[in-house]
Amino acid sequence: MKTLDSSAKGAYLIAVTPFADDGSLDLASTDRMVDFYLEKGATGLTILGIMGEAPKLTAEESRIFVRQVLARVNGRVPVIVGASAPGFAPMRELTESVMELGASGVMVAPPSTVRTDDQIVAYFDMVNETLGPEVPWCLQDHPVATGVQMSASVILRVLKNSPTCVMLKHEDNPGLAKLSAIRAAGERGDAPRVSILTGNGGGLFLPEELTRGADGAMTGFAYPEMMVDVVKAHAAGDVERAHDIFDAYLPLARYEQQPGVGLAVRKHLMLKRGVIASEAVRKPGPKLSAADVADIERLVARQTRRLQEIGRSGKA
Question: Span of the secretion signal (predicted)?
Answer without folding.
Answer: none
